[in-house]
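Wait, can you check?
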Amino acid sequence: MIPTQYAELRRIVEKHQISVFTGFPHSAPAPSDHPESAYYYNAANLFSPHYSRGDVYLKNILVPIGERMLWLDKFPFLWKLQFGQANWTFGTEVPRYYCGKHDFAPSICYELAFAHFMQRANFELPDGNLAKADYHVNVTNDAWFGTSYGPWLHGVMTKYRAIESRVQIYRSANTGISMIVDPMGRVLTSAGLFEITNLHAPLYISPKTPLYHKIYPYPRVFVMLSLALAILSFFFARRHK
């Protein structure tokens, strides 16, 4: 974060005695053999009057081409191609943040679309131990979708992720659609596209670990098995003709 922006954010936090979880570009020095002078990240962090600057969350799942060119590790010459992409670096950990008496897990933008990532974020601590987050916060930039179906589709995914983890999700989108969804997938309150407002709703915490958390890796196995059986049936059908 640019120092002047950080100073202004700290001023707002201290003046109004509020906590702010927000996203920003982040960087770290890169070794001399790296194609660029620094590692750049799509990042977020919690800023609070009573909370020292903790671990910065570095986005784990980057949008192909939009946030990072594909196959940079395998084909280094692709670093020279510039189509306006940022070429962010992948983050690897998902920290927990504490606000008041409760903790929350973070995600940025379309990471919300990935059930396996959300299960990891909501149930696993950075040290590998298991502990369910009290709630989840998703910050996203949906401006590039314009008025297409993108913001609505992105918003609908929030309901599924809340149900799968049984956690309340606070979704803040810079151009909408923002919403608060409870652990049952019910939208408690929301803001429309390009609507500027404040959202608030009671926090519902579910201590239960849902069945989905125990079986979420397996659906892909069933899909692969179904595909294999479909191919085999096609092969044997042709042999018997």
Q: What stands out?
A: The chain has five helices and nine strands. Residues 3-209 form a domain with the Nitrilase/N-carbamoyl-D-aminoacid amidohydrolase fold (CATH 3.60.110.10). The radius of gyration is 21 Å.
